[in-house]
Design a protein that fits this description.
Length: 136
C-alpha cells in the first residue's frame, strides 16, 4: 500500500469512529431526556436500537473493504453472507423489544436508524451549508 492510500484508510476509519460516536451520543442525550420525563421504555428502546445500529455500521465498515480482493463469485457470496448476518443483527433489538415490556419497540426501530440518519445529516445537510469544512 502506498502512503496516500494508507492515509485515506486511516482518515476513513477516523471518520467512521467519529460518526458512530456522534450518532450514539445523540441517542444517549435523547434517551436521557426521555428517561427524565418518564418515558423509560422509550429511552431503553432508543438505546437498544442505536447500539445495534452502531454494531451494524462497524461490521459493515470492516467487511466491505475485505470483499475487494476476491473473485466475483466469492465476493458475491461473502457480501450475501454479510447482509444476512447484519440483518439478523438488526432483527435482535426488535425481537427483544417485542418480547420485553421494558423496551418500546417503536423507539428501538427508530434507534436502528441512528447511524444512517447521522450519515444523511452529515453528507446532505452539513455539506450543503458548510461546503469547505471537512466532515465529520
Amino acid at each position: 500500500m502506498t502512503d496516500d492510500s494508507q492515509q485515506d484508510i486511516t482518515g476513513l476509519r477516523q471518520f467512521q469512529r467519529q460518526l458512530a460516536r456522534k450518532a450514539f451520543g445523540a441517542c444517549v442525550v435523547v434517551a436521557v431526556l426521555l428517561f427524565a420525563v418518564g418515558y423509560k421504555p422509550a429511552a431503553r428502546g432508543l438505546l437498544l436500537g442505536s447500539l445495534f445500529s452502531v454494531f451494524n455500521f462497524v461490521i459493515m465498515a470492516h467487511v466491505l473493504p475485505r470483499q475487494l480482493g476476491y473473485a466475483r463469485r466469492k465476493a458475491t457470496a461473502f457480501a450475501f453472507g454479510s447482509v444476512l448476518v447484519r440483518f439478523g443483527l438488526l432483527a435482535l433489538p426488535l425481537i427483544i423489544a417485542f418480547k420485553f415490556d421494558s423496551f418500546n419497540w417503536i423507539t428501538a426501530a427508530v434507534g436502528l436508524f441512528a447511524v444512517p440518519l447521522a450519515i444523511l445529516i452529515d453528507q446532505v445537510i452539513l455539506q450543503r451549508f458548510y461546503p469547505n469544512r471537512v466532515h465529520p
